[in-house]
Design goal:
This protein is mainly alpha-helical. The protein has helices spanning 10-23, 27-31, 42-50, 58-70, 91-104, 108-114, 123-131, 139-150, 164-177, 181-187, 197-205, 213-233; strands at residues 6-7, 55-56, 86-88, 136-138, 159-161, 210-212. The strands form three sheets. It has a two-stranded antiparallel sheet. A two-stranded antiparallel ribbon has the order 3-4. Helix 6 (108-114) runs antiparallel to helix 7 (123-131) and helix 9 (164-177) runs parallel beside helix 12 (213-233). The longest helix is centred in the C-terminal third of the chain and has 21 residues, at 213-233. The radius of gyration is 24 Å and the shape is elongated.
Amino acid sequence: MAEERVPIDQKIQRELQKHRKRTNIGAISLLKGRELPDGLSAGIVSSWLSGRAKSASPSLLSYVLELWRSLPDASGKRTYPLRPGRIHITPAMIREMKQAWERTGVGPYALVTGSKMLRDLNPKIVSLWMCGSATTARKEQFDRVMEAWSIPMLEERPTMDLTDKHLQTLLSLLEETNFNLPLFFKRDQYAPDGLTLNVVRGWLRGTTKTVRKKHYNYMVKILTQQRDTIRANRLPLDQTD
């Protein structure tokens, strides 16, 4: 369902202009290098500043306002405190989220879409926190996210996010064993339902970000067994003469 737009009245326009002047940061510099919510661009922010746009998406407007409010003014002194209930996303909090992801194998998207207690959250907001694009958050939302990540049932979720570490494990095993994936899937009769050559190719190409745990674990098991067999059949160097 589309968001109901909010009017860009003079009060909002003046606040946007005040923050631009206070920070000496324009729309392009404000958004440059950040992972932005869908639909947001420097052109849209500029249209709010100039008054060309008469309405805006409330989530996009809130994102821009909170971002500008969180920045110090041009002299380095912060003059606009956060609204009640909001907190800064600190490096320690980012580390805490990344550790939770690594511990559970559940990334931001899978966490938010799979948790009943986070149904009101946009899955992208947690990713924005983690990459530093969003510098503030509602405290109660952050607390709920960390609580969801701490639930033991996360360990039993059928899916997981395919991290760089998971992918590197697969690539290393494939390289060491010189594993023939097409031949394997042509002959193997015990692969879990839904695990196909194209599925694994999607992992390796990076086009698939969320995988079934049993699929990933099965491939690691097969590749590890193949690697161990190869290593066991190698003669030590001092026995080759």
